[in-house]
Amino acid sequence: MRKFIFITIAFILFSSSDVNAELYKYVDENGILVITDNINRVPESQRPDTTNEESVSNSSPSVNNNYKRPGRLNKNYRKDPKAKDPKDMTEKDVFGELNDSYGKSTIEALFSGNIDLHARSRRGESFLHGASSRGLTEVVSYLISNGLDVNAETPEGLTPLIEAANKGHVEVIELLLSAGADINAATSVGGFTSLMAAVSEDHTEAAKVLISSGADFNVSCDFFGRTFTPLSMADAKGNDEIKEFLLLNGAKKPIGYEDTRFSTPENTWQLYRKALIKGDTALALKCFTIK
């Protein structure tokens, strides 16, 4: 009974004491284990050596407040490609960046690692195809200076110039042409040229640059089962600006094609006013030569 009472008292003292207090244990004269937070109650022979950092106490172990429990692994997690160190990039990573536009656009971000610049993707594209499609002028210049073929073709016949024209990247088009890109190269399916690519996507400035640089504007291609020339494509797209530019440069009118721009005095007058607003002197003068 006495033993039970002493143990109960010790438990109460332990429960009511400050959680941060130092606790000590000792055996009294009756052989009962006692726990207290007052070191003066502990017989000197059983007191811990306070000079030793590792006190013989029964206090709770210290808690590392900087510890963070590891989070549960999310199986659906996909690493953000932008977070990858450029030096750890692989050829596959670079193709992913160029094709999916994750965010990396600089030469340092794309080619700081041990990259084979002449690698090809599974679709047969070179890095120059991807950079041209995204309009990355500095990257295109870097790749050309490192010997990449400006006329490299995919199995479908796509060239970097066709890729750039399809997206309307004028600066890249000019850069590729200055490096010797074949302006009239065509795809193996449909015969699509860079000019047709620009016209089909309504990239007016890109089309003008290609026409002025000597692109064949009388070539025909197959587009969704129909045969088009750049002129008939521009007409079908309703792009009068490209259509006018083609005609002024001597584009042949397809059989059955009717140029309604000068069909009536009213149409001619409207076209003349448009030419003045745009500063198109050649078109304005042509309005006076139409019979």
Short description:
This protein is mostly helical and 291 residues long. The protein is built from 13 helices and 4 strands.
Task: Describe this structure as you would to a colleague.
This protein is mainly alpha-helical and 291 residues long. The protein folds into three domains: 2-46, no CATH class; 89-256, Ankyrin repeat-containing domain (Serine Threonine Protein Phosphatase 5, Tetratricopeptide repeat, Alpha Horseshoe), CATH 1.25.40; 259-291, no CATH class. Helices cover 40% and strands 5% of the residues. It contains 13 helices and four strands. It has helices spanning 2-16, 91-100, 107-111, 127-134, 137-145, 160-167, 170-178, 194-200, 204-212, 230-237, 240-248, 265-278, 281-286; strands spanning 24-27, 33-36, 221-223, 226-228. The strands form two sheets. Strands 1-2 form a two-stranded antiparallel sheet. A two-stranded antiparallel sheet has the order 3-4. It is elongated. Mean pLDDT is 76; it is low at 52-81.
Question: How are the secondary structure elements laid out?
Answer:
Blueprint lengths: L1 H15 L7 E4 L5 E4 L54 H10 L6 H5 L15 H8 L2 H9 L14 H8 L2 H9 L15 H7 L3 H9 L8 E3 L2 E3 L1 H8 L2 H9 L16 H14 L2 H6 L5
Antiparallel strand pairs: 1-2, 3-4
List keywords for this structure.
291 residues; mainly alpha; Serine Threonine Protein Phosphatase 5, Tetratricopeptide repeat; two-stranded antiparallel ribbon; two-stranded antiparallel sheet
